[in-house]
Design a protein that fits this description.
Layout: E1 12-16, H1 21-32, E2 36-41, H2 44-54, E3 58-62, H3 70-82, E4 87-90, H4 105-133, E5 136-141, H5 154-174, E6 179-186, E7 189-190, H6 192-200, H7 204-213, E8 221-222, H8 223-234, E9 245-248
Parallel strand pairs: 1-2, 1-4, 2-3, 4-5, 5-6, 6-9, 7-8
The structure holds NADP nicotinamide-adenine-dinucleotide phosphate.
Length: 255
């Protein structure tokens, strides 16, 4: 954990998709670990309520990451607020379930706009500032589906697989600038996204039970399980880790 030190200004972190689920839990965990946190998402009331709940080291900036100038705007806001930029958590994402062969390209592009291109734009904007400042840590939230195949999840999986490939190459390219780039690959995690997925199934209760039954630890993740991994990868304890994908999936991908 990065503990606050006397007379040293708090490190600054950006969390995208902070208005829900894993992003909300991550914002709370980083705040607790002593960071200034710049929160972002589209929902202004939810984001402002979270920032107020956290306290003076939290600030919310509403932005749609699919807009071309959002990444620069968010990074500038984080620097103005925190006086530095140490950590970027690329967490915002949307789900997509559907038949691979008939999904319209318009839908495919929309999934990639949020899950892939927005993460890439944030990495570029934050990475450029971190390079000037002497280093930083970028954490991309991908998915177990970046590495395994599941029917009806191909479009989403491809959008996350691209971010996994980006993570590895960016880690190598940015290492000389002391910028670490890692991924976290959550398994099924109890968030509004997960609840929406179970609600779509023929028998939601049975689907939730089936999801848990396939996991060696016997339960789906809670958002705080993923948040804990983010705090670790952001911290000095992980100073020699770059280019990795850390599964937070209860052992699912070990089977
Ligand atoms: P969630 O509860 O649905 O939250 C998604 C977040 O992304 C929200 O804060 C949303 O904010 C933000 N977002 C979506 N589109 C956006 C856009 N265009 N611009 C700005 N913000 C946007 O999802 P979650 O379950 O916490 O998932 C978080 C991440 O983990 C995602 O990348 C997801 O793919 C990944 N993941 C989740 C699971 C799971 O089972 N839950 C498993 C593996 C990976 P607004 O609505 O305010 O815009």
């Amino acid at each position: 954990m990065t503990a606050p030190r006397e007379n040293v200004p708090p490190p600054t972190a950006i969390v995208t998709g902070a208005t829900s689920g894993i992003g909300d839990a991550t914002a709370r965990a980083l705040y607790e670990a002593g960071y200034n946190v710049l929160l972002t998402g589209r929902s202004l009331p939810t984001g402002e309520a979270l920032a107020a709940d956290l306290g003076p080291r939290a600030r919310f900036v509403a932005a749609d990451l699919t807009s071309s100038d959002s990444a620069q705007h968010i990074v500038r806001a984080a620097y103005a607020f925190g006086g530095g930029l140490d950590v970027l958590v690329n967490n915002a994402g949307i789900d997509h379930t559907g038949d691979l062969l008939t999904t319209p390209m318009e839908t495919v592009r929309a999934v990639f706009e949020t899950n892939t291109f927005a993460s890439l734009a944030m990495l570029q904007a934050a990475g450029a500032l971190m390079k000037k400042l002497g280093g930083g840590s970028i954490i991309n939230i991908t998915s177990r589906l970046a590495s395994i195949g599941v029917p009806s999840m191909s479009i989403y999986a491809a959008s996350k697989g691209a971010v996994l490939a980006l993570t590895r190459s960016a880690a190598v390219e940015l290492a000389p600038h002391n910028i670490r780039v890692n991924a976290i690959a959550p398994g099924m995690t109890r968030t509004p996204l997960f609840e929406a997925w179970t609600a779509e199934q023929d028998d939601p209760a049975e689907a939730a039970q089936r999801a848990a039954a396939g996991i060696p630890l016997g339960r789906v993740a809670e958002a705080r399980d993923v948040a804990g991994a983010v705090v670790y990868l952001a911290s000095d304890a992980a100073a020699y880790l770059t280019g990795i994908s850390l599964p937070v999936d209860g052992g699912y991908t070990a089977t």
